[in-house]
Structures are given as structure tokens and as C-alpha cells.
Design a protein that fits this description.
Blueprint (H helix, E strand, L loop, with lengths): L18 E5 L11 E2 L19 E3 L6 E2 L15 E3 L9 E2 L14 E3 L5 E2 L12 E4 L21 E4 L1 H4 L7 H6 L7 E4 L19 E2 L5 E4 L3 E5 L2 E2 L6 E6 L5 E3 L5 E5 L10 E9 L6 E11 L7 E4 L5 E5 L7 H5 L7 E3 L6 E2 L22 E2 L14 E3 L6 E2 L11 E4 L5 E2 L11 E4 L19 E4 L10 E6 L2 E8 L10
Parallel strand pairs: 4-6, 5-7, 6-8, 7-9, 9-10, 10-11, 13-20, 24-25, 25-27, 26-28, 27-29, 28-30, 30-31, 31-33
Antiparallel strand pairs: 1-2, 1-3, 12-15, 14-18, 16-19, 17-18, 19-20, 21-22, 21-23, 32-33
Length: 493
């Protein structure tokens, strides 16, 4: 009769090897303990062959016999669970005399399977505190005496097979007496024979548990960081996968983090039916799915440029390019605090928002913009950009276009064709990421920028720039130039 095909370790792996292995308290194999074949007399007794720190034993398929005193006499850490002779994990037929004698930490549970035909005297005797014993052998297999005697498991529960022990309160009284079963022990019929399997001794692997994710709603171009949280009842290692994610997103197979930027155009396939699967490495492998809906909306393209006042009320709407001195002339009270530049704009005229002290929101430019005039945003001291990213189109910056701006980084990623003299005059910029042709970056572009110290340049060496520190370039001194080897990344956060 097969009791259980596996003993599941804390790491979830089944015992399917040929070697007998002992494990320490951290569930790590003890190298000195490994043996192929039968376990000789006295082999692990008194803590020998690495058994002094063993808490669990797995018997390999090559083992058919556990010798006399194999563990007996002084294995004070061995606990369990133990499966002996179930016909699958192993086919042990013999448990020798005093095989586990005086193992005074051996709580179990212990399964003695149907392949066992001989159990010697005092096999589990003397101060062995067994709490659960599962017996699937006939009383005739207990060839010795007092295998459970002399202080062994005084309060243990012995589950006996109805095939061999019948049904009744005595459960073979002669066997009980011969094996020295303590009066406080309870013998019960194994009602659901051959199940349930003892807890910890081959309990069926359980599926992972996923915390509810819930439906998601985002816009195209949203940056996503969604953590999938899962646990495993058996503490197995988990692997994450997903189907039906909006385009642009991926899931980390090890951590369960869904991340990325939702692609423009993802709205056309919305709503997405997203399935997250968490899989363990137990035996048998188990997995759990979480299904939810992910809605993606398109972001309307802003065509017009819109100006807002301090109450975030629209005060002006402009279609087309932005004329020189427009804000400077039309809103002298400087009540413009926010501007959204639309895609109808191809150029921003000189002094368009010059000296606008109320402007206090970040500047973003659509790729339709191809030129930014002199002092267009000069002396706007309250713009909070940490990073000023120029349009990705071919664009020309005129002199002092961003003079005196409180920015730290300037990014010109793709095809800026000209950065004029004094473009960032007097600003707080410290780092520039430059990818255009350097012949079109004026030698005084960062003049009077006292913090300017670092340039990351695409193909710096090929374009004739010197990589290194302490250079006087672009109107600043002591500048360090790095080759932007992994252009266009990294972009400053």
C-alpha cells in the first residue's frame, strides 16, 4: 500500500533521489551524511557522519535497510518527519534493533509504510517523544519487542491501518503489550486511510496566494509601477508571469513588479483582460491566476497653446506659432502662472514670456517646436524644472533663450541643430546631455553658468571633443566631458 509518494521539504522539492541525506536546521543537506545504499549498523549513532546537527532524514531509493543502532544512542537533534518504507520515496524493509534508540528530539510524525517487514527490539525506545505515528504494517512485522517502550511517546497518537489492525478499542492488544506502548498513548483507526498524510510529512503542495490586484485605469504614456504581492503556504520560490498587459508593460518574473510606460496607441485595444499567474516550484507544481481589467485611455492631443492664471483659469488660447513679446506685451501684470504649448506651435518668438515672474510651472515642449527665440523664457526665475528637455525635432535656440533659469539639467536628445551663444546665460544648470552636432553648439552657450560642470556628449571623441575633466568649454571652466556611451540613456529622472 502506498502511503505517500513524496516527502515535501521546506524548499518544496520531492525526495526522488537514490541517496539518503540528512538535513540541518536550515534545511541544508549535510554533506558528510550522504550515503548510497543500506544504512549500516551504528552508521549515524552518537551523532556520527554529520548527524550531530541533523533535524531531518530523507531515505533514498537505494536504501532497503536501516541497521541496528543506525541513529541510536545519541542523536539529540533528529526530529522528523520520517517516511520509512512507503514503496515510492523508498522501499525499506528492515528497521534494525535500537535503530532510533534514545533519539530524544524525535517528535515525528513518522510513517512506517507497507514495505517494512521487520522492526527490531527497542527500535524507537527510551525517551523518544513521538507525537504522531502512522503504521501501515501488520503486527507480525514487529519482530522484536518494546519497539515503542521505555518512555517512548507517552502521549502519542498512533494511526493504524484497518487492513492490518482491524477495528476496535484494543487494536491488537497483544501487539500493544509486546511493543510497550505507553498507557497514555492513543491508538486510533486510520479512518481516511491512506489519507490524511501527516502534516509536514508529505503534505500536498499548496498553491500560491495572490493578494487582490483590482481593476486598473491609466492613460497612454503613463509610467507604471504595480507590485503583485503573493505568498506561498509552503514557502516555495515563486515565479511571476502575465498575459494581456497593455503594450509597453512587462512583469518581472522574480519580483512580480509590473513596470514600463504604456505605449501611445494602446487605447485601441482597451479594455485589456490581464491575467497574472504566480507559480511555485513545489511538487507537484502549483499556480494561481488573478484576472482583472486594465482600462487605457488616449490622451487628447493639445493643439492650441493655453495660458492659465493663478486660479488655473484659461486667460488666453493661441493657435499657431507664438509671437515675439506676446505675453510680455499683453500681460504686463505677469499673471500667467502656467502655459501648455500646443502642437500647432512651430516657433516661439523672441521675448515671448520674458521676465514673467509669476510663471511657476514646468515647461514642456511638443516636438512641433523647431525654434525658440532670444530671451523667449529669459529671466523667468520661478520655473521649477529640474530637468529642461528640449524638443526632439530639429530645433534652434537663439541667444539667451533660457537665460537665468533655475534648472539643473539640460537634455538635447535628438536633432537640435543649433544652441546659440548665451542660450543658458546665468542659469543654474550644472549638467548637459548633448546629442546634436557639436559644431552647432556655440562656444558660449553656457556662459556665466557658475554651476556648469558636466557634459555627456554623444560620440564626443568622434566629434572632436576631449573626454576628461578640467576643460574650458561652452563658456564655462573646469568642465568634465563624458562620452554618452549608452545614448539616449540615462536620461535624468
Amino acid at each position: 500500500m502506498i502511503i505517500n509518494p513524496y516527502i515535501v521539504t521546506s524548499s518544496g522539492g520531492p525526495v526522488d533521489g537514490t541517496d539518503t541525506i540528512l538535513y540541518d536546521a536550515g534545511d541544508n543537506p549535510i554533506t558528510a551524511s550522504i550515503i548510497n545504499g543500506d544504512i549500516p549498523n551504528d552508521y549515524y549513532s552518537f551523532g556520527s557522519n554529520g548527524a550531530s546537527s541533523a533535524v531531518r532524514a530523507e531515505f533514498g531509493t537505494s536504501c532497503t535497510s536501516i541497521g541496528n543502532y543506525a541513529f541510536g544512542g545519541g542523536n539529540f537533534t533528529l526530529d522528523g518527519p520520517l517516511i520509512i518504507g512507503d514503496g515510492v520515496a523508498n522501499s525499506i524493509t528492515n528497521i534494525g534493533s535500537a535503530a532510533f534508540y534514545y533519539c530524544n528530539s524525535l517528535n515525528g510524525p513518522i510513517v512506517i509504510g507497507s514495505t517494512v517487514t521487520s522492526i527490531g527490539s527497542t527500535a524507537f525506545a527510551y525517551n523518544v517523544p513521538i507525537t504522531e505515528l502512522y503504521v501501515d504494517t501488520p503486527s507480525s512485522s514487529w519482530t522484536g519487542t518494546t519497539a515503542l517502550g521505555n518512555g517512548t511517546g507517552g502521549s502519542m497518537i498512533i494511526h493504524v491501518s484497518p487492513t492490518y489492525f482491524g477495528i476496535g478499542s484494543n487494536y491488537d492488544a497483544a501487539w500493544r503489550t509486546a511493543q510497550g506502548v505507553a498507557g497514555g498513548a492513543t491508538i486510533v483507526n486510520w479512518d481516511n486511510y491512506p489519507n490524511p498524510i501527516p502534516n509536514g510529512a508529505g503534505a500536498a503542495n499548496q498553491a500560491p496566494i495572490i493578494s487582490s490586484i483590482g481593476n486598473q485605469t491609466n492613460n497612454e504614456s503613463d509610467v507604471i509601477s504595480l507590485q503583485v504581492n503573493a505568498t506561498d503556504p509552503d514557502l516555495n520560490t515563486l515565479t511571476y508571469s502575465a498575459t494581456g498587459l497593455p503594450t509597453g508593460l512587462i512583469i518581472n518574473s522574480s519580483t512580480g513588479l509590473i513596470s514600463g510606460t504604456i505605449s501611445v496607441g494602446a487605447e485601441t485595444s482597451s479594455p485589456y483582460t490581464t491575467t497574472v499567474t504566480v507559480t511555485d516550484d513545489g511538487s507537484p507544481i502549483e499556480s494561481t491566476n488573478e484576472v482583472f481589467t486594465w482600462n487605457v485611455s488616449a490622451v487628447a492631443t493639445l493643439t492650441d497653446t493655453i495660458l492659465y492664471d493663478v486660479g488655473d483659469v484659461v486667460v488666453d488660447t493661441i493657435n499657431g506659432s507664438l509671437l515675439s513679446q506676446y505675453v510680455y506685451n499683453n500681460y504686463p501684470s505677469n499673471n500667467i502662472v502656467r502655459v501648455e504649448i500646443g502642437t500647432s506651435c512651430s516657433s516661439i518668438g523672441a521675448y515671448w514670456m520674458f521676465n514673467s515672474t509669476d510663471l511657476n510651472t514646468e515647461l514642456t515642449f511638443p516636438d512641433s517646436v523647431t525654434s525658440i527665440g532670444s530671451n523667449a523664457f529669459g529671466n523667468c526665475p520661478n520655473i521649477p524644472n529640474t530637468v529642461l528637455e528640449l524638443p526632439n525635432s530639429a530645433v534652434t535656440l537663439s541667444s539667451s533663450a533660457f537665460a537665468y533659469l533655475p534648472v539643473t539639467d539640460v537634455v538635447a536628445v535628438n536633432t537640435v541643430t543649433s544652441i546659440g551663444y548665451y542660450s543658458f546665460y546665468g542659469s543654474t544648470v550644472s549638467t548637459a546631455y548633448l546629442a546634436p552636432s557639436f559644431s552647432n553648439v556655440d562656444s558660449q552657450a553656457f556662459f556665466s553658468c557658475s554651476n556648469f560642470s558636466t557634459v555627456y556628449a554623444k560620440d564626443a571623441v568622434a566629434n572632436g571633443w576631449t573626454v576628461g575633466a578640467g576643460q574650458s568649454i561652452l563658456g564655462a571652466s573646469n568642465v568634465t566631458v563624458f562620452n554618452w556611451d549608452n545614448y539616449p540613456n540615462p536620461i535624468p529622472n
